[in-house]
């Protein structure tokens, strides 16, 4: 009788013991769904990764390639792939050893076939941009009547400073041209992707709005068909996803010729319902909650958006896999229990079967894409979820690495333009980091005594940051040093904000009071995320500039690898870890005394700092410890905020805006950011009107009084005093014989000359501090400079110590005023390689001929004037 002792026979091995021993790779096909502990799969299957990466690279390269080249690549790969596949031995189907031996050839055949498929798909999509009449009409800049179908939500451009003005606001919409007709020609049916640009600021003052003061173009939904009269133009850059740009002048209500589809109307109602439910919330949660839930960033201010960029929290504003994971977790429970009897989530509590749960999850995925819009991160998340749900429905658990590779392959074949999308790249890289590096790093932290939940969160945040930071550096030319802690602190609020936000989204169409209550509950975690972003962005050393190129990305990746290798060794030495953490904290916080001791900036006893803000003006007058009077704000909030932070300025008794050109006032939000401001003083000439209104809106929102400066005004704060010397007080309109008070006979004409523009109305100041006299001329042009030289203050302007040269050192200067002022030091604020030719060589030569030392921010950076009692020193940052 045969003994039954010894090791038990495994279910997946032949009982006879004949043939080679087989180690399990996948769960047995006979395993019943919902068993208490279904068999887990073996090592991660990476066979799909090379084909997915090859298809991705092929699509990115072939999109704008010549059709003949693409056809040749497709043909060659198909022929070689088929030959490799046909050459596989028939015995490969019989034994495991034969199958293993044939894997390299099978993998090579699969890779070649995927490359051929990607090249064919990319070639066809690229040809779409060159097919039909639209590209030719765009090259001719033709005016056409077109019927278009919208493929995205309308979005507003962010304000951009161009020279002394802000570029007009425009509405951008992705669309497909279905019919196009040139003036005097016949309509042609076609299909070409275009970018529709609607210049809303160019519309008449009485244009139609949607009831909220917005252009009605902003209320359009995807799949809506419009008829527009517009001008075609070529795509802005080569390699764009559009065949042309369709520029429309907003003359009122758009002409709708086809209503949006039913699903899009439902999605639109849900999105507008969420916006309505959040209307009563504080500013930051009101803007942030729709972005967290459905990616609606229309309310995000430039200031808040910049804070999220500085802290690498921008991914929270773009709906991604994290949002979808939270939704699936509500349905399925923890992913590790998805196939167990004790699985959790809403589905088992509602009595839904496992396959029914998968079907319901698929419906949820489709709704998720429609409501949140098919952005690259949303599509990638939904595709990965669909692959996982398919595996769940068939009872075959898969690792998420093959699921991710499958999703990438299918999406690149379906839409090759994703291969060039930075959003898609960041989404895939972040997901790969969470699936590969994060578990290893979390396990390592747990082995060193870190609590499990903290180790998991820290490992995930560090892994995602390590792999995504090089890509972010290419886009922003900056590396955040606070990204990991900010993401850790924000992580705890994302899930409750998302769950409550989606609940408000679902209930808004049927029960708005309930939706408002849910939104009110969600505003606490959403507000927490906004506060984390603002606090991180306010840290002086929160980020460092980095080369914005792929070479810079490779350098950052190498630096990250060094930090990881060194960090692994340091984890075993607590004192070294504490020392490194302290050094990093000091580098990020940058206490002013330590920063001054290390960098020498700002120099002790500084009296005036001309900030380096590019092509614009921004100056700070010292008025005590942590206090300064700001004269102009420059064109960029980030640059002036960085300058004020480096000086340690937290209190500003007065902001003087010399005039309303954008290169002097557009940076005002950066001046107000986190600082106590007493008042804002401006010129009385409120042109350009849009920038004057911008200043008043900001002041009203912060409850800061706004006053007007006029010649003769004198003020003092501490050792700092100043006198406004221009513009003269405005004469009453009904007094033609009026002269400014205190004006000697013959100094001014009967009525002071009206300014020819904003520059001639600039506020000019004579500043006295510590025995130094500084003359700040704003952007005065020669007519105003000559009038100033004849004004009652002319004698006080003689022999000043420092001259802030008017209008960035342009060629338009009055030689008489320069001779009268005879400065010892002339400072010019201008942008590097600016297109205006500032400063003019003749102006610099005239200043030097008068004995002045000339310094300029485009070459010397920020400039600090120090000294007193006649002594004058200058330091460069």
Q: Can you walk through the features of this model?
A:
With 877 residues, this protein is of the alpha/beta class. The longest helix is centred in the first third of the chain and has 33 residues, at 96-128. The chain is globular, with a radius of gyration of 33 Å.
Keywords for this entry:
44% helix, seven-stranded mixed sheet, 27 helices, eight-stranded mixed sheet, single chain, alpha/beta
Layout of secondary structure:
Blueprint: H1 49-62, H2 67-86, H3 96-128, H4 134-139, E1 143-150, E2 155-156, E3 161-162, E4 165-166, E5 170-182, E6 188-199, E7 225-233, E8 244-249, E9 255-258, H5 262-277, H6 283-294, H7 302-310, H8 321-332, H9 346-349, H10 354-372, H11 376-394, H12 400-414, H13 422-447, H14 452-476, E10 478-480, H15 483-507, H16 512-538, E11 543-545, H17 550-570, H18 574-589, H19 592-599, E12 606-610, E13 619-622, E14 628-631, H20 637-647, E15 651-652, E16 655-657, H21 662-665, H22 668-672, E17 676-677, E18 680-682, H23 689-702, E19 706-708, E20 714-717, E21 720-726, E22 764-769, E23 772-776, H24 782-789, E24 802-804, H25 815-821, E25 825-828, H26 841-849, E26 853-856, H27 857-860, E27 863-868, E28 871-876
Parallel strand pairs: 6-8, 14-16, 15-17, 16-18, 18-19, 23-24, 24-25, 25-26
Antiparallel strand pairs: 1-5, 1-7, 2-5, 3-4, 5-6, 7-8, 7-9, 10-11, 12-13, 12-27, 13-14, 20-21, 21-22, 22-23, 27-28
Give the overall average pLDDT: 81
Structural class comes to alpha/beta
* Termini separation: 94 Å
Which ranges are low-confidence, i.e. pLDDT below 50, for 5 or more consecutive residues? 1-41, 202-211, 335-342, 732-751
C-alpha-based Rg, rounded: 33 Å
Number of helices: 27
């Amino acid at each position: 009788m045969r003994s039954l002792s010894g090791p038990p026979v495994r279910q997946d091995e032949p009982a006879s013991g004949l043939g080679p021993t087989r180690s399990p790779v996948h769960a047995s096909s006979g395993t019943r769904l919902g068993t208490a502990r279904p068999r887990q799969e073996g090592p991660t299957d990476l066979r799909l990764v090379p084909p997915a990466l090859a298809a991705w690279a092929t699509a990115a390269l072939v999109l704008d390639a010549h059709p003949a080249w693409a056809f040749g690549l497709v043909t060659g790969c198909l022929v070689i792939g088929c030959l490799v596949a046909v050459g596989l031995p028939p015995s490969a189907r019989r034994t495991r050893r034969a199958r293993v031996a044939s894997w390299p050839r099978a993998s090579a055949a699969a890779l070649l076939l995927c490359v051929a498929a990607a090249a064919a798909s990319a070639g066809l999509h690229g040809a779409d941009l060159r097919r039909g009449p639209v590209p030719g009409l765009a090259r001719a800049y033709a005016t056409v009547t077109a019927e278009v179908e919208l493929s995205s939500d309308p979005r507003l451009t962010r304000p951009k400073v161009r020279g002394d003005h802000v570029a007009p606001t425009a509405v951008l919409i992705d669309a497909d041209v279905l019919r196009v007709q040139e003036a005097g020609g016949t309509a042609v049916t076609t299909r070409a992707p275009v970018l529709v640009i609607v210049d809303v600021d160019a519309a008449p003052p009485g244009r139609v709005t949607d009831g909220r003061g917005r252009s009605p173009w902003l209320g359009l939904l995807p799949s809506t068909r419009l008829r527009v009269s517009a001008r075609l133009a070529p795509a802005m850059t080569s390699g764009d996803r559009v065949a042309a740009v369709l520029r429309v002048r907003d003359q009122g209500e758009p002409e709708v010729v086809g209503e949006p589809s039913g699903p899009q109307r439902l999605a639109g109602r849900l999105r507008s319902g969420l916006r309505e439910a959040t209307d009563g919330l504080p500013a930051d949660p009101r803007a942030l909650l729709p972005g967290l839930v459905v990616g609606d960033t229309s309310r995000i201010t430039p200031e808040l958006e910049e804070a999220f960029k500085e802290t690498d929290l921008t991914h929270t504003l773009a709906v991604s896999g994290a949002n979808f994971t939270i939704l699936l977790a509500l349905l399925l429970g923890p992913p590790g229990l998805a196939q167990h009897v004790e699985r959790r989530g809403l589905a088992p509590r509602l009595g839904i079967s496992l396959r029914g749960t998968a079907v319901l999850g698929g419906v949820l995925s489709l709704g998720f894409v429609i409501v949140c819009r098919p952005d690259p991160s949303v599509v990638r998340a939904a595709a990965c979820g669909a692959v996982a749900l398919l595996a769940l429905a068939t009872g075959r658990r898969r690792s998420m690495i093959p699921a991710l590779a499958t999703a990438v392959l299918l999406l690149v074949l379906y839409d090759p333009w994703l291969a060039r999308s930075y959003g898609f790249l960041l989404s895939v890289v972040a997901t790969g980091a969470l699936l590969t590096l994060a578990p290893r790093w979390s396990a390592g932290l747990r082995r060193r005594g870190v609590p499990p939940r903290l180790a998991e969160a820290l490992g995930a945040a560090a892994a995602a940051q390590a792999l995504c930071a090089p890509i972010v550096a290419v886009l922003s030319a900056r590396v955040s040093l606070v990204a990991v802690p900010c993401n850790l602190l924000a992580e705890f609020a994302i899930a409750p904000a998302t769950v409550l936000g989606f609940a408000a989204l679902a209930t808004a169409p049927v029960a708005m009071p309930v939706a408002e209550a849910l939104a009110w509950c969600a505003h606490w975690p959403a507000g927490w995320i906004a506060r984390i972003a603002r606090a991180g962005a306010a840290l002086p050393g929160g980020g460092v500039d980095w080369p914005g190129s792929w070479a810079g990305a490779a350098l950052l990746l190498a630096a990250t690898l060094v930090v990881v290798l060194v960090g692994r060794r340091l984890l075993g030495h607590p004192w070294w870890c504490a020392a490194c953490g302290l050094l990093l904290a000091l580098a990020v916080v940058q206490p002013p005394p330590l920063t001054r001791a290390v960098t020498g900036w700002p120099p002790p006893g500084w009296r005036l700092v001309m900030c380096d803000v590019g092509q614009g003006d921004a100056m700070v007058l010292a008025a005590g410890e942590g206090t300064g009077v700001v004269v102009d704000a420059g064109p960029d909030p980030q640059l002036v905020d960085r300058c004020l932070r480096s000086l340690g300025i937290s209190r500003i008794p007065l902001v003087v805006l010399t005039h309303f050109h954008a290169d002097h006032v557009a940076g005002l939000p950066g001046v107000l950011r986190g600082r106590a401001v007493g008042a804002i003083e401006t010129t009385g000439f409120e042109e350009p009107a849009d920038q004057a209104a911008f200043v008043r809106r900001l002041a009203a929102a912060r409850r800061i009084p706004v006053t007007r400066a006029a010649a003769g005004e004198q003020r003092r704060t501490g050792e700092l005093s100043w006198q406004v010397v221009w513009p003269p007080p405005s004469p009453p309109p009904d007094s033609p014989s009026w002269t400014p008070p205190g004006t000697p006979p013959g100094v001014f004409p009967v009525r002071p000359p009206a300014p020819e523009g904003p520059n001639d109305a600039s506020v000019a100041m004579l500043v006295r501090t510590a025995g130094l006299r500084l003359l700040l001329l704003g952007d005065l042009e020669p007519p105003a400079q000559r009038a100033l030289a004849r004004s009652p203050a002319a004698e006080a302007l003689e022999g000043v110590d420092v001259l802030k040269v008017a209008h960035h050192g342009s060629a338009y200067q009055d030689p008489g005023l320069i001779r009268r002022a005879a400065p010892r030091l002339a400072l010019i604020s201008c942008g590097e390689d600016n297109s205006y030719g500032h400063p003019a060589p003749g102006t610099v030569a005239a200043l030097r001929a008068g004995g002045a030392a000339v310094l300029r921010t485009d070459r010397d950076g920020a400039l600090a004037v120090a000294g007193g009692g006649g002594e004058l020193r200058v330091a460069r940052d």
